[in-house]
Amino acid sequence: LVARMRPFGTTIFAEMSALAVRTGAVNLGQGFPDTDGPPEMLAAAAEALRTGHNQYPPGPGIAALRAAIAAHQRRFWNLEYDPDGEIVVTAGATEAIAASILALCEPGDEVICFEPYYDSYAASIALAGAVRRPVTLRPAADGRYAVDPAELRAAFGPRTRLVLLNSPHNPTGKVFTADELALVAELCREHDAYAVTDEVYEHLVYIDAAAPHVPLATLPGMRERTLRISSAGKTFSCTGWKVGWVSGPRPLVSAVLRVKQFLTFVNAGPLQPAVAVALALPDAYFADLRDGMQQRRDQLVAGLTDAGFRVFVPEGTYFVTADVAPLGGRDGVEFCRSLPERCGVVAVPTQVFYDDPEAGRRLVRFAFCKRPEVLTEAVGRLRLLA
Ligand code: PMP
Ligand code: GLN
To answer: Which atom of ligand 1 is nearest to the CA of 233?
Structure first.
C-alpha cells in the first residue's frame, strides 16, 4: 500500500456496523435510514430496470437527471446551473468530493476543512497529495459547535487551494451561521481559494436552528469559485444507490468531469431517472422528511439526556453528539467498543474525525434516522447505563 494511504484503516462506519451485526446491537452508528424512500422513486427505478435503461448512461449523467438537479436547486436555493456543462452526476457525494479535490489540488496544496470532518475528506486529500488544514469546531456555552474566527483566518495562507465546507455538518449536526459563512466567503475571495461544499443534508435543518441552510455559492463572489455537492442518499433515503452530483461554473465542473471519467466513467443507469422523479416531488415531501426526522431527533435527544449523557442538540443532519463524561466515560473509542456488550447499542466515537483526538476524546455520535420504535428500544437499553 502506498505511504499516503497507510494511515487509513477500515472506516469507523464499517467497523461499527460489523460490530452491530456481530453483537445483535441496535445500530445507531453508521448513518442510514431503516425505511425506504418515496414509492414514486422506487417505482421509477423498477420501471427503468424493466425497460432497458441498463447500459452505460452519458458521462455527466442522463439529461433528465441533470435537468431535475438544476430545477431542484433553482426551486430551493435560487441557484441557476446549466444542466449542460455545469452539473455532473457522480457515484454518491463521495465520488464528487474525491473528484473535486483530485481535479483542483496539486501535491502540497492545502485544503482547509472543519474538524471533526467526514472521514472521506482526509483520504481524498491524501490521495491528491494535498495537505489538510483542520479548523476545530468546539462546543460553545450554548451547546452549539462554533468556529473561532481567528483560527479560521489563521488557517488561510499562500498554499491554501480550497476550503471543504460541510453544512449541515456531520457528525456535529451544526448548521453554519450567516456570519460564519460570510467569513468563509470573505477569506476565499481574499486568498483566491476555491470552495467545495458538501450539502448532502441540505434538507435536514430543524426548526430551532440558528440559521436556515444557505448554500455558500449564493454569497457574493462565490458561485464562480464553488463546487456544490449533494446526493440522493439522505434526501430520498437510498444511501445504497450512491447517486450524487456536483454543480458549479463550467471550467470547474469540466475539470471534475475529466477526473470522474477515470474513476467510475459513468454511474448506475436505471437509478438516474428515478432520482430525477424524486427531485421533482412536491415541497411537502421535503418538509415531511424534515419534520419526521426532527421528531426522531427530539426523541433521541430526550432519551440520551435521561440516560445521563451531556447532549449537544443538533440543528441539522440526522446525527446527535454527546459527551460520555457524565457516565464516567473517559474515551469515546473505548466507550463505543464496550457499548454493545454493556447495553446492546452501537454508536460512533467522533474523536476519529479529528487530527487532534484530544479535541473529541469523549464525544460519541448517535444516528436517529431510525423508526421511532427502534429509537425507543435503543433509549430503553441506554438507560441501563445510568
Ligand atoms: N458527506 C457527508 C457529510 C456524509 O454524511 C455522507 C454520507 N454518510 C457523504 C458525504 C457520502 O454521501 P454518499 O453516500 O452520497 O456518497
Ligand atoms: N454518511 C454515513 C455516516 O456518516 C455513512 C458513511 C459511510 O458508511 N461511509 O454514518
So the answer is: 15
* CA atoms within 13 A of residue 271's CA, in its CB half-sphere: 19
Residues 200, 342, single domain; the answer is: no
Give residue ranges with CB within 6 A of ligand 1: 31, 92-94, 118, 166, 170, 198, 200, 231, 233, 239, 242, 244
pLDDT in tens, 339-361: 999 999 999 999 999 999 899 99
Rounded Cα distance, 13 and 119, in Å: 9
Strand order in the sheet with 348-349: 310-312, 319-323, 363-367, 348-349
Residue 30 Cα, ligand 2 centroid: separation in angstroms? 5
Q: Domains in the chain: how many in total? A: 2
Domain that holds residue 344: 3-30+284-385
d(CA 368, CA 357): 24
Per DSSP, helices labelled H in the chain are: 12-23, 39-50, 63-77, 92-104, 119-127, 149-155, 178-190, 232-235, 250-263, 271-279, 283-307, 332-343, 372-382
Assess contact for 68 and 280: CB atoms under 8 A.
yes
Place of cell 441552510: 213
Both 208 and 342 in one domain: the answer is: no
Mutation probe of ligand 1 site: the residue of 170, 175, 227 with most atoms within 8 A of C-beta: 170
What cell does 368 get?
436517529
Contact yes or no for 358/286 (Cβ under 8 A): no
Phi-psi region of 339 (alpha: psi -120 to 50; beta: other; left: phi over 0): alpha
Shared domain check, 307 and 173 = no
Residue among 243, 197, 230, 189 at smallest CA distance from 216: 197
- Which residues on adjacent β-strands are paired with residue 322? 311, 364
CATH number of the domain that residue 359 is part of: 3.90.1150.10
Global pTM?
0.97
Do 153 and 243 lie in one domain? The reply is yes
pLDDT in tens, 137-177: 999 888 899 999 999 999 999 999 999 999 999 999 999 99
ipTM: 0.97
- What lies within 8 Å, CB to CB, of 36 at 6+ separation is 42, 237, 238
Among 261, 281, 301, the domain-final residue is 281
Rounded distance between C-alpha atoms, residue 207 and residue 11, angstroms:
32
